[in-house]
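Help wanted!
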Amino acid sequence: MFHVKHFDVVVIGGGHAGAEAAAAAVRMGARTALISMRKDRIGVMSCNPAIGGLGKGHLVREVDALDGIMGLAADAAGIQFRLLNRRKGPAVQGPRTQADRKLYRQAIQVLLARTAGLEIIEGEVVDLIDGPNGSVSGVALLDGTQVTAAAVVLTAGTFLNGIIHVGDQHRSGGREGDVASERLAHKLAGLGLKRGRLKTGTPPRLDGKTIVWEGLDVQPADDEPVMLSFLNKAPQVRQVSCGITHTNERTHDIVRANLGRSAMYGGHIEGVGPRYCPSIEDKVVRFADKTGHQIFLEPEGLDDDTVYPNGISTSLPADVQYEYVRSIKGLENVTILQPGYAIEYDFFDPSALRPTLESTLTGLYFAGQINGTTGYEEAAAQGLVAGANAAAAALGLAPVLFSRTDSYIGVMLDDLISRGVTEPYRMFTSRAEYRLHLRADNADQRMTGLGLAAGLVGEARAKIYTDKMAKIGAANAVLSTQTYSPQELQAAGIGVSRDGAARSLLQVLAFADTHWSQIDQLEPQMLGFDTDTKAQVWRDALYAQYLHREKADADTLRRNEMMRIPVELDFANLPGLSNELAAKLQRRRPSNLSEAERIEGMTPAALLLVLAHCRKANLARAVGQ
Amino acid sequence: MGDTIFALASARGKAGVAVMRLSGPQAHWALAHFCAAPTARQASLRRLVWQGHVLDEALVLVFDAGASFTGEACVELHLHGSLGVIKAVAQALAEMGLRPAEAGEFTRRALENGRLDLAQVEGLADLIDAETEAQRRQALRVLSGAVGKRAEFWRKDLIRAGALVEATIDFADEDVPVDVTPEVLGLIDGLLVDLRREIAGAGVAERVREGFEVAILGAPNSGKSTLLNALAGREAAITSEIAGTTRDVIEVRMDLGGLAVTLLDTAGLRETADPVEQIGVARAVSRARTADLRVFLLDHSDEALLIAPEVGDIVVLGKADLRPGADAISGQTGQGLDKLVAGITAVLAGKAASAGVMTRERHRIAMVRAVEAMESARYQVKGIGGAAELVALDLRRAARALDMLVGRVDTEDLLDEIFASFCIGK
Ligand SMILES: Cc1cc2nc3c(=O)[nH]c(=O)nc-3n(C[C@H](O)[C@H](O)[C@H](O)COP(=O)(O)OP(=O)(O)OC[C@H]3O[C@@H](n4cnc5c(N)ncnc54)[C@H](O)[C@@H]3O)c2cc1C
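Answered by r_m:
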């Protein structure tokens, strides 16, 4: 009755991290198992029905460029595509879509089912199998099944010791409708990993049939929708609009009067919540002088009347939720289908992780919410990293590494590992120092090559990518071969100053008021290129003149990232380091100089000392060879 | 472990004793080629023999790894200070495969081995070099963190401005204040005023550190060299009755009222056909122009020289010994010298009072970069308005530039910068 199965990689959890991890491991060539509590709940969106956004859309594009599945599923389920910051520069534009919950879940399940070499196992993981020297070599399920693997990826989301709070009521749960994962949490607690509690909340779900839509503002989908995946061009299902309404003084009075009954303010929750995703209680308390807060009424699906009111997440008791929701314009007679709630859960200090997302236990990888992040996109991106690296380790391949200078994925990994988290971590474009270079529109140009080298990218995408790059390369060549005098450019209607400087058309493209028609006139060869290629060449050209400013910084950073800190370096015995810093370094074990630099309290003097020792150790190794 | 290096630790040139220092794993091995090694830390006289030839008779000191200046195995050879000996020993060491040290390499190794930390190296360097009271006070101010405090203050404003811009980018969909432009501009403008003022003061601070230059100017034979010698209290310049004796610029460093001052004695200013003297005059004029203060030593009060005094310069009549009673000075008799010194000191002290806390060229460069970046940000904010990501980039560049003040620099560059300013073998 005790089955034993063997795989290269086993992934625990079928959320956004788990799905992407499993798919990535298979693409790398690993025999992979995905174990989740319920097969039919794989790909569930626990909270808001949307994918992408600022920073988040960038992550989705990178996952997609590495041949991941999130972008494909989002496009299949997208019911309201919007490019955020459309009026700002391309570097800070983020693709986003409202997603039909059911369609999204189905799309993920179909994509996984089609993934040859992936076995999906339904069951609850209750234990990890200990391998030699404190490593992990597999998992045990509730029914006694043992699944052994060279590498295990844990993506248990909000489930570990999850507690759901509604007002002063609380109960165990992984999220609404799912049981928490307590036995596994217990096992993990005994492993000596640094653990903490975080919390997050979700708003009540409303019955759209009971909303008075007339008189509310609407936000329609974009006229020219931009997809999440590089492989898609157009929406696959009908597009819908969102409604917009606002809280008012009465809403705030009701919330204020009941603060003591909120799980959070009543002192029932110990976990820390995200500042950038405040509950309605937080908003009313922290921004007391605001008389109204915006709420987006987002449809959860095409054949589903459920509405997600984005902006009023709460942990107030159900009766208070009714009262305050009904004080809002358009919601006077609304029915709540499911009350809002807060959830608190275990997470593990990500600063103990390696850049591969391997934990201090060999063979055990962590991804997603359990690393202290929040959001589907953050989870998916980590899932890809953990899955790919678990597979690489199992198959004896080189690790797949990312840098702050090449991707948002690299930014996120580095932030998590070198700083740890004090509140749920979410991606923003401002986290990326090299924002002009790390754009959503060029994620494939940055990542697909890396993915190809690692073995993460399949043939179909490789072909599309190579064709695209060839076209962009050709267009760039045409635009940069010849230079034009200011007189020639002015004759074509292009506004340049008569400074005598000859310019290539690539340079001219960056000017604010240049039109393609003017360029085409000067260089008729450009007429042969399609609009997508031209648009991409334009975006690259736009920032070319600023990139050198970022580049100097990027080079420094890359140099520091390249300076590996030898694993055997004993910080405790570095003469000249303060005890406090030595202890911190010893605990965090930065794997390169850049990580060490970002450790809180790091001083230039101490960094130099570390650098000096890396140099010595690396030199010794080189000499010894 | 690194390779083994050697360099002369004492001043170059003929001297009674020259100290050759060896550091690295092969230091003791190299010594064994010359002579039998003495006990560690015990000076012993040894005959240094290389390939059958005696190089020198030297005092030899051996230090074990972990108990030396650099932390590595070290040897000191106290040689006879002849250029021939030094050259022969250096050549022998090179033939054994040892490498001549680069500038500051001994200190660098001391740092790498934890014998010194960076704060000690950078901070104390100024204090050690301090020759005057003003330098000492300034160095202490830097050591106490004045630079960091100022930088921190600016960073706060910069971060505020950056945050405002970032908010319009990352929270485009939410209720952020629509127009952050006025506050951003206000912050940038305030910072620009502050930084520009500090940049102006940085030049002076560097002067305090490096010494003010005071040029003595006058016609040939007006007694400039005699004055310089009198002020220096020694024969620094050759004096003679022959006009045009001083052809190059002669520098004398001295402490005037607690300030480090370099006095420059220059060629007498006159039109001349002698090509060598012409060069001297041209040099005198150019050095005088860049000096912090010029002292004009005139023969008669309406004399016009090749360059005219600027505001704040000092003009005196010389050779008081030859014109009794007049309000003049004399290097010969010392008449009026106290008053002149007081005058020079007063002018320089006035300048020194405006010294900022930024004492190094590195600091000034950081501030200039920050100003450039902020000017660019200002231009972007005022311009098209749509380019929030470019404004943000400039504000980040400015913050990074200011980070350099507190030391969050590319560590490699900092290392090289610091160690380049240390002399070989120190
Ligand atoms: C109430 C609530 C509010 C939220 N609010 C926000 C928000 O405001 N903003 C935001 O960005 N994100 C929010 N989220 C978070 C978002 O849902 C997560 O970031 C995202 O789903 C994390 O993905 P994941 O893959 O790490 O975990 P999850 O999506 O939680 O998936 C975990 C998976 O692991 C499985 N699992 C767990 N334990 C076991 C086990 N022992 N054996 C087998 N399978 C197991 C589960 O069945 C599940 O499939 C919220 C989530 C909840 C529940």
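OP: Thanks! One thing I noticed: Residues A 12-18, 35-37, 41, 46-47, 124-125, 155-159, 174-175, 178, 181, 184, 200-202, 277, 343, 368-369, 374-376, 379 surround flavin-adenine dinucleotide (CB under 6 Å).
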